[in-house]
Amino acid sequence: MDVKKHIVVVGGGFAGVDFITNLAEDDNFEITLVDKNNYNFFPPLLYQVATGFLDPSNISYPFRKLFAEKPNVRFRFGELLEVDSQQQRIILSNGELSYDILVIATGTASNYFGIENVQKYAIPMKTMNDAIDMRNKILLKMEEASRSDNEYERIRKTTIVVAGGGPTGVEISGMLAEMKATIFTKDYPELIDFLPTIYLVDGSRTLLGPMSVESQQYTIQKLTEMGVKVKLNTQVKDFVDNIVYFANGDEIETEILIWSAGVTSLVFGGIPTESYGRGRRLIVNEFNQVAGVQNIYAIGDTCIQTTDVKWPGGHPQLAQVAKQQGKNLANNLKRRRSNKPLTAFKYNDKGSMAIIGRNKAVADLTFPKKHINGILAWLAWLFVHLLSLVNFKNKMFTFYNWMIAFFTKDQSLRMIIKPDLTGEMNSSQQLNK
């Protein structure tokens, strides 16, 4: 009788969850999911949590509940620090785990391009904590501006700079512009003459670089009509004393810099330097095996695969790539167990889309090859993202909140909620006495 293989999956995002889902009913494998969060969340909708249109629970779900009825799946709360490929074990922030097969699906982190002040003071948009921090900071600055008598200070506190012209930057800018038009006027009557000025800046010559020219032009046009000041060929150089400095010599005074300008993969001790490629992504072959090590695979944004003929420079870091790689790897491990030939990964590109605002979105479809925009693209975006949420509860509550927002042009989730760290520290001190 064959011994069950123990698979350790590090990262419970799109790639990790799809991989586990496709192996969860197979008794030949024992699976342990490791993640530094105890919940799965849906990154494409983080900006809606950040702007108070969705509650964090709408786009997240606990791992233990997600896999509660899967007897061969276990969850380990912890963060990967190092891989010991010789002993086939990983070192976590809270212990160790042995594996027969290791699957790394850790996604990406914000890339600050070595700008220390941006890393220290800007608001990233990669995690649930980032989204909540952004919501808190924007609302706090609006409150501070509403009680200030200094015109100069009011302008600085209500100016928002979004760096990065990809889908995240476009979606945040569009949502903030809609809030300025429909919400801030009601919530902050004291600031009727000082409503937020929103800048969207990017170092390239256009927004939504990988998308079609039609999508790019439509996006710039609609954002401009909504009042967003789009600045292209404008690269952030530094962020010092509430001033954003640009490489071309321009400056913008603001206390809010939202950073969505780039991503980079994580590097782990124990994996050879030569196993990493561009963007610190792990180099993998057509079966997602990591170069230079045994029994280690990487899937999703954290890997770069150049064996797919249509994508010789590597696949885009998109959810669809991650999900398809997760499924393909799961099927290959089953095929290997049955001594069947493995299937090389080939990305089925279904197209890309981005939402700009109410009834405004763009979509570039692959089959048929077609560009759509406006309300049709907006409905397609809503439908695809709703279906992609991890369970029925998330779908139901997200749809409910979207309907409320659509008909009222408002939402009641704009609370400033922050943990009382002082209280926690005092309690800890009392316990240690």
Salient structural properties:
single chain, 433 residues, alpha/beta, 5-stranded parallel beta sheet, 13 helices, 33% helix, globular
Q: What's the rounded overall pLDDT mean?
A: 93
- The Cα radius of gyration reads 23 Å
Could you tell me how far the N terminus lies from the C terminus, measured between alpha carbons in angstroms? 56 Å
Strand count, sense and barrel status of the largest sheet are:
5 strands, parallel
The strands making up the biggest β-sheet line up spatially as 5-2-1-9-21
What's the β-strand tally?
25
Large-scale geometry: globular
Low-pLDDT runs: 427-433
Share of residues in helices: 25-40%
Determine the strand fraction and express it as a percent band: 15-25%
Number of helices: 13
- Give the structural class: alpha/beta
Describe, in plain words, how this protein is organized in 3D:
This protein has 433 residues and is an alpha/beta fold. It has helices at 14-21, 46-50, 63-66, 116-121, 128-146, 151-157, 167-182, 184-187, 213-225, 319-337, 375-388, 392-408, 421-432, and strands at residues 5-10, 29-35, 39-41, 60-62, 73-77, 80-84, 89-92, 95-98, 101-104, 108-110, 123-124, 159-163, 197-201, 229-231, 236-240, 243-246, 251-253, 256-259, 263-265, 282-284, 296-298, 303-305, 351-357, 360-365, 370-373. The strands form eight sheets. The protein has a five-stranded parallel beta sheet with strand order 5-2-1-9-21, with no helix packed on it. Helix 9 (213-225) links the parallel strand 13 (197-201) and strand 14. Helix 1 (14-21) packs parallel to helix 10 and helix 5 (128-146) runs antiparallel to helix 6 (151-157). The longest helix is centred in the first third of the chain and has 19 residues, at 128-146. It is globular, with a radius of gyration of 23 Å.
